[in-house]
Design a protein that fits this description.
The complex is a heterodimer of chains A (about 300) and B (about 270). Chain A is about 80% helix and about 0% strand. Chain A contains 13 helices and two strands, in the order H-E-E-H-H-H-H-H-H-H-H-H-H-H-H. Chain A has a two-stranded antiparallel ribbon with strand order 1-2. With about 270 residues, chain B is mostly helical. Chain B has a single domain, classed as Orthogonal Bundle (MetI-like fold), CATH 1.10.3720.10. In chain B, about 75% of the residues lie in helices and about 0% in strands. Chain B is globular, with a radius of gyration of 23 Å. Classes of the chains: A mainly alpha (about 300), B mainly alpha (about 270). At the A-B interface, helix 1, helix 3, helix 4, helix 5 and helix 7 of A face helix 1, helix 3, helix 4, helix 5 and helix 10 of B.
Chain lengths: ~300, ~270
């Protein structure tokens, strides 16, 4: 009896292993091993024609002296400061308003419409917005001209280029975060809300003292995703500005791409990618610590 | 007080409606321009003409036809692979006593934090060495990820063990149990995963851009990105290309709206 029990369990373990195996092979090859290879190549000089040459910390030293890194950092901080507050607050307000006051067919219709930009490809969106931003008669400039103001070269001038790219990002992601907030609000028990109504709390009070505190974890997550995403902006920059004018819209992701696939400096690009990995893991770590501290309270 | 409430509600409704208009306006503009043949962007309503010449031109002369075919093959292949591999893995993780499975699952989840740019370069080298550049396999194989396995496992929990045991006692074999009991029970989740994978594969850009460099193997977003939009271009044709790229996910969204939203909400609330 004992023996058959064990062999059955072992058989089940083997069968289970067989079910997991395909995912393991694919995950190992395409998700795990490249991380370690990236770290390895970051210590080499490699142009894909000759074998990689070990150069130690050379790439990292060069990277620390790279004068464009400063640009990228400024751009990323600016991008975060524009996109994260606007998309977070906008998606929260819309989700809270629809969940609270528009729980009807029109409300769900609005939710469906606001989600539409999320499904559009970034490249197609970039092409459309690029056309709308055109100084010679693009839709937005036509609108500005209506008020007698001169056309603005949105993507061609330094002060407007980055905010213009950021606007597309906000347009595309507000619906995404709205859906997450909406699901979060729907998870809040209605009993608490109803008790507050009975106690005479106004909608604004209920939002401020009940909904907002409950949504804190979601807000942390959305802010973290927003910050991490801004390091990785690629498609929009590739299609709309190519990192320019000057270096006004250069991002880390675009830099990695151009070092690796235009200049064929694979080792150097890997060093930059590893740097990006460290930064992103640090952001995750900070978020987790923040969370733990809040939970302990 | 009551009056205040309704005024606030009206203002709120108007504002949210305005935002919704802003969300679709660029897409309406895209479709409108795709039906003009003007070289200028000063489009009047009279410029709109109900003919598909821009679409025909993009599909036949600018490689959009090929790109459409490549995108469809890539998306179908990706959805099949991701669905099969993720469901199998989720079943193994949730229902089988595999030693060390929780540690492995945590390892899978951890890969979700890794930014794509970090694995891009070694993956490109591996594909190059395996002579898989400019193939569909290069686009499809890396689509399997932790998210799909995580999503399927969430739903696998709800498959009752008693049902599986009863079927086993009745002499229903392992594979038959998986196919005839487990898969029908997790079908709603499979649809969500398919929708998610469809969108990810369809809109994927950076990886197809670097791995499939031959224009016959390019997918829609890559072909789209090669259309320059300087003043000598026919904007109508560029917007026809953008509309084609947008059309397929949009049609899917109209029919499977709930599934689109579900995948995101689930990932977001749990994550």
């Amino acid at each position: 009896m004992q023996k058959t029990f064990f062999s059955r369990r072992r058989r089940q373990a083997l069968i289970g292993g067989a079910y997991i195996l395909p995912s393991f092979v694919l995950m190992f090859i395409f998700n795990v091993s490249p991380i370690f290879l990236s770290i390895f190549y970051s210590f080499t000089k490699y142009d894909m024609t000759a074998a990689p040459v070990w150069v130690g910390l050379d790439n990292y030293i060069k990277l620390s002296q790279n004068k464009y890194l400063g640009n990228v950092l400024t751009n990323t901080v600016q991008y975060v400061l524009i996109t994260v507050p606007i998309q977070t607050i906008l998606s929260l307000l819309i989700a809270a308003f629809i969940a609270g006051s528009l729980k009807n067919r029109y409300g769900s219709f609005l939710r469906s419409v606001i989600f539409i930009p999320v499904i559009a490809s970034l490249i197609a969106s970039a092409a459309v917005w690029d056309t709308m931003y055109k100084p010679d008669g693009g839709l937005i400039n036509q609108f500005i001209n209506l008020f007698g103001a001169p056309s603005v070269n949105f993507l061609g001038k330094k002060p407007t280029a980055l905010p213009s790219v950021a606007a597309v990002s906000i347009w595309k992601s507000t619906g995404y975060y709205m859906v997450i907030y909406y699901a979060g609000i729907m998870n809040v028990s209605t009993e608490v809300q109803e008790a507050a109504i009975v106690d005479g709390a106004s909608p604004i009070q209920r939002f401020w003292y009940i909904t907002l505190p409950i949504l804190k974890p979601i807000t942390y997550m959305i802010v973290t995703l927003g910050i991490i995403g801004s390091f990785q902006v690629f498609d929009l920059v590739y299609k709309m500005t190519g990192g320019g004018p000057g270096r006004a819209t250069l991002t880390v992701a675009y830099m990695i791409y151009s070092y690796a696939f235009q200049d064929k400096r694979m080792g150097y690009a890997c060093a930059l990618a590893v740097g990006l990995l460290v930064v992103i893991l640090l952001i995750h770590l900070i978020q987790t610590l923040f969370f733990k501290e809040r939970d302990a309270k | 007080m009551k009056q205040n409430l309704t005024v606030g509600k009206v203002i709120g409704t108007v504002l949210v409606s305005l935002f919704a208009v802003l969300c679709v306006l660029p897409l309406i503009y895209m479709v409108a321009v795709s039906f003009t043949d003007s070289q200028s962007l000063h489009i009047r309503l009279s410029d709109l003409k109900p003919d598909l010449s821009n679409y025909v031109y993009a599909l036949t002369k600018r490689n959009f036809g090929l790109a459409l075919k490549n995108s469809v093959i890539t998306v179908v292949g990706s959805c099949l692979l991701v669905d099969v591999v993720s469901t199998m893995a989720a079943y193994g993780f949730e229902k089988k006593p595999v030693p060390g499975k929780e540690a492995l699952f945590q390892g899978y989840i951890a890969t979700m934090m890794i930014p794509g740019q970090v694995i891009l370069i070694p993956m490109f080298m591996m594909m190059n060495q395996a002579h898989l550049t400019n193939t569909y396999a290069a686009l499809i194989l890396p689509m399997v990820g932790a998210f799909g396995i995580f999503l399927m496992r969430q739903f696998m929990v709800a498959v009752p063990n008693e049902l599986l045991e009863a079927a086993e006692i009745d002499g229903c074999g392992e594979l038959r149990r998986f196919v005839t009991i487990v898969i029908p029970l997790v079908q709603p989740a499979l649809i969500t995963l398919t929708v998610f994978t469809f969108n990810a594969a369809w809109n994927n850009f950076l990886w197809p851009l670097i791995i499939n460099t031959r224009s016959e193997m390019a997918v829609l977003p890559v072909t789209m990105s090669t259309l320059s939009s300087n003043s000598t271009t026919n904007y109508g044709m560029v917007m026809a290309g953008a509309t084609l790229t947008f059309l397929f996910p949009f049609v899917l969204y109209i029919f499977l709206q709930k599934q689109f939203v579900e995948g995101i909400a689930l990932g977001g609330v749990k994550g």
